[in-house]
Amino acid sequence: MPAHEESSNPLVKERNHLAASRTALRAMREDVQALDIRDVTANWVNAAVLQAQIDDRIKALADLSHTPLFFGRLDYLHEVGAEKAEGVSAGAARGAPAGGGEQFYIGRRHVHDAHGDPMVIDWRAPVSQPFYQASRKNPLDVDRRRRFGYTGGELTAYEDEHLTDPAETEQTSKLLQAEIERPRVGPMRDIVATIQPEQDEIVRSGLGGTVCVQGGPGTGKTAVGLHRVAYLLYAHRERLARTGTLVVGPNRSFLHYIEQVLPALGELEVRQATVEDLVAARVEVRGTDGSAAAVIKGDARMADVLRQAIRSHVTPPAEPVVVVRGSRRWRVPAYEVEEMVSELLARDMRYGAAHEALPQRIAHAVLVRMEEAGEAPDDRVQNAVARNPAVKAAVKAVWPAVDPAKLVLRLLTDADFLAAHADGILTDEEQKHVLMTRPARSVKAARWTAADAVLIDEAADLVARTHSLGHVVIDEAQDLSPMQYRAVGRRCSTGSATVLGDLAQGTTPWSTRSWEQALFHLGKPDAVIEELTAGFRVPREVIAYASRLLPAISPGLAPVESVRETPGSLVVREVASAQELDAAVVAACEESLRQEGSIGLIAADARVPSLSAALAAAGHSCLSPGEETTAESRLTLVPASLAKGLEYDYVVLDEPAAVVDGEPDERTGLRRLYVALTRAVSGLVVLHAAPLPQQLG
């Protein structure tokens, strides 16, 4: 406990405030549960909507025993100004330290007492920002910043920084370091108590612009992206409630790992999905592409091929349109219909929108003739003419409806059709690669691949505009193809995005080579690119070892500078022979299990069955990636292909050379190894029988 004390026993006072805050939160929840909506709803639809909102509010007010209500306190020198007081009511609940300033407890959500006065301030409120940004050079009118330490949900320690006291020397916060290094069991945790100034600036950047965050292992980019969503929902709740938010992750295991972060911050309405989830509505993915085919299908040039193929369905009219109404016949010449078609093509409308507009254009031409003949038709007559069989037949012949899946199927099975629309865009060799080896007769019979589904999604957007959300977060974005970027970009075309990734961790044949290129395909070329280089998760010794690979996998990229020095955190151990490797790996896992926290055994995908059998023979059960670790089950066996984005207290890495050899080329293999080497929070053991890749020295 620090020497400075504001009363005879400040820890007791803080515990009392915690207990009172929990009581207040419980009362807030009970107030919502007691609401009677029977007299305020006009019908069952309104009642259902209101009840759903109430249920969500009740969930958001849950008091999670493992999640402290507050983690810090700010003692201001003066009363806060109006610009900071948003979400803070006037009154005595904030506290008043000696000197006339104000006192605020900073936590994961707002808590107020029976009078409406705040007991805990939401970390996203303006008054809370100095908790992350204040420093001795710029104290932001904060006299004291207090951090709290918890054990099992109980407040057990506190630590003070007197930002305006010149006699106090600056020191690294032990509680902050302990929170960063706290053993990881269960899903990913929020970092709301440990956000650093450079992270906070990204978190609080405005809704209007797109932000791209380049961050090496352990820099907290995923957490920054999730907390940015939480902040935007706080600052722009009404707008985002209408437009929606989405988090896009690389795979289901990763999404399961992060899924509890936003609920812990009281945000329940954010959808999470993979790119495959977004584009899977129209066809079932049952096939796989070779790397060459996947790269070509993921190339942005395929968008041009699709656009030409769709527009090829438009044909000039061969005959006039003759509409019979009663005893009168109204004729629209073929050249006039052709002018309408040319105008619609020139406007570059969505194909489906133009298909809907053309009958109205023809009907309008008929109405003009009716008016010239002395009749007085109205809108109802125009709509009736647009539905006339002759008009419908003409539109079907000139601008027929297009089914996106059928169009893509024809492109991938009909070599002549593909050649006609890929001429000058794809080479003959590239066209051969994308053609299906076993042509299917129908959409349902086709063995669609993940890349095919993205092509169908692109074609569907050319027919009808994809609905845009208010904000989309894309994590591990370096692994997306240009066509996948376009698929995600369509879903935030009128909104904004947070793009998170690390160019050095790109492990797909089509992985991003520059963020400028990626943002262009996303449709956000004006996005701001930020770089996080301070590492808080991976020990300095481990990240330095992994960074030996950077010149080979991402030349010019700045290595992460870890703030954590943990002597003994890296062990590289050679095993005498391949036959002894499995036993050595099991022994290393047993050694790690003696430590507190989670353990990840990472191995080349081909090595997983052998290691699983060796662990079982030794009496150890292991989890698969995505399964939640518990105090009783802490060991996860992780194929290297699924390691990205995950983290464990201790990692045992099996045979680095096998990880590299498991990929189609050395560069991708070394990037996969870089990912595997940087999953550890406290310690890494590398075991090898084969020689290590020469890039590791």
Automatic annotation (TrEMBL):
Cite the UvrD-like helicase ATP-binding domain residue spans from the record.
194-548
* SUPFAM superfamilies with a match to the protein in the record: P-loop containing nucleoside triphosphate hydrolases
Which Gene3D superfamilies does the record match to this protein? P-loop containing nucleotide triphosphate hydrolases
Q: Which InterPro entries does this one have?
A: DNA_helicase_UvrD/REP, P-loop_NTPase, UvrD-like_ATP-bd, UvrD-like_helicase_C
Name the PROSITE patterns for this protein: UVRD_HELICASE_ATP_BIND (PS51198)
Aminoacyl-tRNA synthetase keyword on record = no
Q: Which residues bind ATP?
A: 215-222
Q: What is this protein called?
A: AAA family ATPase
Biological classification of the source: Bacteria, Bacillati, Actinomycetota, Actinomycetes, Kitasatosporales
